[in-house]
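FAQ: What does the model actually see?

It sees only this:
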Amino acid sequence: MKIRNIAIIAHVDHGKTTLVDALLKQGGAFAAHEQTGELMMDSNAQERERGITIYAKNTSIVYEDCKINIVDTPGHADFGSEVERILRTVDCVLLLVDAQEGPMPQTKFVLKKSLELGLRPIVIINKIDKPAARPMQVVDEVFDLFVALNATHDQLDFPYLFAIAREGIAKRAIEDRSEDLTPLFETIMRHVPQADHNLQAPFRMQPSALGYDNFLGRLAIGRVYEGIARPGDKVFVKTQEGAVRQGKITKVFVSKGLHRVEVTEADAGDIVTLAGIPDIYVGETITTDENAELLPAIRIDPPTISMTFLVNNSPFAGKEGKLVTTRHIKARLEKEQETNVGLQVEEIPGTDSYKVSGRGELHLSVLIEDMRREGFELQVSRPEVIMREENGVQVEPMEHVIIDVPEEFSGTVIEMLAGRKGEMLDMKTHEGHARIEYKVPTRGLLGFRGDFIIETRGEGILTHSFLCYESHKGPLADRGRGSIVSMENGTAVAYALWTLQERGRLFITPQTKVYAGMIIGESAKSEEMAVNPTKEKKLTNTRSSGSDEAINLVPVKPMSLEQALEYIEDDELVEVTPKSIRLRKKFLDETERKRAAKK
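And it is asked to produce this:
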């Protein structure tokens, strides 16, 4: 059977997974008795809750006499390394762009990688049914982006279609009548080159992603470039450094719809999953010929953010979780490294802690959220940007930021970013809305989102992606407001919180259990404030009308994990358990503070 391999790439929330749903339904991936739903490729619980794709996943459909392998990729910048690797396994990409928003930072990032690999994208302008859609303008903006990214003449001659992925409709022209994705299927068949089908050469493939199975161990996921993969074959695994080791394929799987199907052989051109090589890693070449040439190296971008994961040693340690020791945390982080290629874990000597580095705050917070759902208790420090040294100069990561806000808030946003060493690249206004482009140090964006949402009253949209490394931009201002810290152990009461809410923003509600050193709110002033949230109202025998005031508490929205990580300062930690997310001072008593100061 002929094989065509495509990946769907886009900025977050531009409709990739919804389009895959429609392709699967119309491509006959489901039998009549099978139930279908929405966002079927987002199988992970966090993906469904957050509404984003976190892990790249492949599926396949059969159209006419051709098998089409489709890879759904993440749209968030923190998972960009997944996209880079996946692009090596396909012959074409479908670039989705929102008909209202146009090209966004991640659109630029993934398109740049595609063009560098010589791929010729098919552009799909999605969500043309939006009231503010401007499809033809967006086509022009995409063309300008291709030019800015030094696309070749052949790549500039890209085919484009218009779509409403939610309804499973694609059109060649906006005025066309269409009821399904037939125009898209026809474009794929005409435009996507057929995968090379060299079955005579020795088997050769390169893993672009890793999987894990409790029974089979580590799995290698990638494209077979030459030959045929069969269970039982003895293979050689070659690294880019020239080392060679032997292994054996025990099982071969291919994707069929949403299912992974075991097969007796897989041909060149197909995307497969191999089991049996326990120490396989991304970018290594697997072959049956010891003298076979290495496949081109896959470069994995280094992490930009790090955090310290510590054993929970708060007064509430061990009350809510089952997995609380260093041994548990170490084993879990090692297991995560089996498949999470962008993650680095380093044990900090002489402590019960680990330095965990990733591509961004979301990349690490997804791991922390997974751990707490599995029953872990741990503490994590404030995210820190990883600096590098180039030619004797300290450099730091920079982000490309695009902000869409009502025009009335544009001055506030410009002022906020100026204080975070931001450099404006462009600003456009249209019908009362402003789009501002900035280049900002990654450090400057830590803790920015919360303030941004408050200052724009929830009407602003902030997106960003890694841009480059530049020389260090100097010190940044700190949070500017101190913490309200409990100085007593006990249970918070409504009366005490009512008297405290005038002095800042509270994070807890009545009946919340607290301990000395736990952060219960944010002060309106710059200095830290020690308070007693357990203080009851004094009772007297005197009774008169009007002596008791009504206790009216401002509603408190519980802090999410991401908000907590953004809020804390260097001397504060986030305590994460299966039931709670608490903020606390790093050193709970004066003795600990002095010991840390000496170190």
